[in-house]
Structures are given as C-alpha cells and as structure tokens.
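Board notes, transcribed. Complex of a protein with 2-acetamido-2-deoxy-beta-D-glucopyranose.
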Amino acid sequence: VAVSWEPSKGALSYTAVAQGSGGYASVCNNSDTACLFSDLLCGLNYSITVTASDDRCSSAESSAVKISTPCVPQKVTAKMVCSNDTGVVSWEE
Ligand SMILES: *[C@@H]1O[C@H](CO)[C@@H](O)[C@H](O)[C@H]1NC(C)=O
Ligand SMILES: *[C@@H]1O[C@H](CO)[C@@H](O)[C@H](O)[C@H]1NC(C)=O
Ligand SMILES: *[C@@H]1O[C@H](CO)[C@@H](O)[C@H](O)[C@H]1NC(C)=O
C-alpha cells in the first residue's frame, strides 16, 4: 500500500502507521511525504494515520484513511462445458 500526504509546516520527518483490524500494526518513518507498506496482511481493514515531527515534538495524528486489503483468490479451476461451447472458471471466495 502506497501512502502519500502533503508536506506540513515545520515538519522534519513523518511517521505513518497502518493499524490492521486484527491488531497488526506496521510503521514507516520518512523525511519525505510518502511511505510504502510492503508487509501488510491480506483480508484486513487497515486504518492509516500520519504524524509529523521536528527535532523536539510530534504533531497529533492526521485523520485516518481506511483501506481494505484483498487476498489472492485460491483454488482457481477451469472446465469446458462442451454442450454449449462454454468455458467456466471458478475460485474460492
Ligand atoms: C520510527 O520512528 C519512531 C520514533 O522515532 C521509532 O520509535 C520507531 O522505531 C521507528 N520505526 C521504524 C520502522 O524505523
Ligand atoms: C472491513 O470493513 C468492512 C466494512 O466496514 C466490513 O464489512 C468487513 O467485515 C471488515 N473486514 C474485516 C476483516 O474486519
Ligand atoms: C452453458 O452451460 C452451463 C452449464 O449448464 C451454464 O452454466 C452456462 O451458463 C451455459 N452458457 C451459456 C452461454 O449458455
């Protein structure tokens, strides 16, 4: 999940937190105004907030952005229905 935000006045660095619905959290620090979360779990709702810091203080949290992470479909199968020239593909929810 790629997250970005506008620069905030006085900020030297930012901390983005992705808090998952299962209690899993991922943290990313950057002096730039973007972060890439590459370790999120699938099938969860994440709430993403960003705080800004200078060398002494941290700001309050930004308003949260919510995102849900879909899982890769499993058990993909394909079969022919010869009677009507149709191919049928199905997968698990
Ligand atoms: C991000 O910065 C915070 C505060 O300085 C620190 O506690 C945390 O360990 C850092 N996390 C990462 C992933 O660098
Ligand atoms: C994520 O949020 C949606 C909408 O609020 C909800 O229907 C769904 O059950 C949630 N999923 C999880 C894994 O909590
Ligand atoms: C072909 O037959 C299958 C199985 O009866 C059916 O599910 C499918 O909708 C049919 N396809 C068309 C194009 O009529």
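The chain has a mean pLDDT of 95. Strands lie at 2-4, 13-20, 25-30, 34-36, 44-53, 65-69, 77-81, 86-90.
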